[in-house]
Amino acid sequence: MTGVLLHQTVRDPLPAMARIVFHLAGGRRLVFADQRKFGSMELARDPSSLRGIRGLGPEPLGRTFTAAALRDALKGRTGPVKTVLLDQRVVAGLGNIYVLEALHRAGISPKRKACGLRQAETDRLHRSIVDVLRAAIAARGSSVDTYRDGRGERGWFQVKHRVYDREGKACPRCGTAIRKEQFRGRGTYWCPGCQR
Ligand SMILES: [Zn+2]
After folding, report:
1. Which CATH number fits domain 56-157: 1.10.10.10, 1.10.8.50, 3.40.50.2300, 1.10.260.100?
2. Burial class of 91 by CB neighbour count within 10 A (0 to 12, 13 to 18, 19+)
3. Tens-level pLDDT at each residue, the chain (196 residues)
4. What is the dihedral of CA 183, 189, 193, 196, to 10 degrees?
5. Which of 130, 150, 153, 172 sits at 20 to 30 Å (Cα–Cα) from 33?
6. Predicted local distance difference test score (pLDDT) of residue 1
7. What separation in Å is there between the alpha carbon of 190 and the centre of ligand 1?
């Protein structure tokens, strides 16, 4: 939350909230800046032994995150697909924005029961998660709030959002007004026209 890792040269100004600095070769450094002190860092020989890493699901852009793996992970999960995808044990690293954007691309309502999706739908959802993350990385992330990339700059994926933060605006696929609702405690955006 609001913490950031910055890859700098030694000539760049050190941020006031720098907590940990790694001095790298070639006059570069990696800075962990954390204004609100919510972050922590752990040192381990084997990162997979760390408590915070051990229970994580597959890395969404890694080889083990396949359409079949997603289908298996959703099996028996009776909660809404949106909530299940935010569970880091199902797939690692997906937050509210990218889950909502992926569900829109896949044409699936955030409220659908996760275990009730047909195979064609879980296949589409898998493809959409990968596509959304690749597009967001290419745009250096979504700076809707305090997010900054490793160079301390704002990302611009927010201008490509199809549903997130677009309440009342036209869906780029079908023209229906995007709806927003607090759902299970999180702001949830979707298109009632083309997400079933
Ligand atoms: Zn639509």
Report:
1. 1.10.8.50
2. buried
3. 678 889 999 999 998 889 999 999 999 999 999 888 888 888 899 988 888 888 899 999 999 999 999 999 999 999 999 999 999 999 998 999 999 999 999 999 999 999 999 999 999 999 999 999 999 988 877 766 667 777 777 777 777 899 999 999 999 999 999 999 999 888 999 999 999 9
4. -50
5. 130
6. 60
7. 8
For residues 144 and 165, the answer to whether their CB atoms sit within 8 Å is: yes
Backbone angles phi, psi at 90, to 5 degrees: -80, -50
Q: How far apart are CA 194 and CA 67, in angstroms?
A: 22
The alpha carbon of 101 and the centre of ligand 1 are apart by a number of angstroms equal to: 12
CA 150 to CA 9: how far, in whole Å?
12
Question: Ligand 1 centre from 73 Cα, in Å?
Answer: 27
All structural domains of the chain with their residue ranges: 1-38, 56-157
Q: Rounded to whole angstroms, how far apart are CA atoms 91 and 70?
A: 8
Neighbours of ion ligand 1 (CB under 5 A): 171, 173-174, 176, 191, 193-194
Can you tell me the distance from the alpha carbon of 114 to that of 89, in angstroms, rounded to the nearest whole number?
A: 14
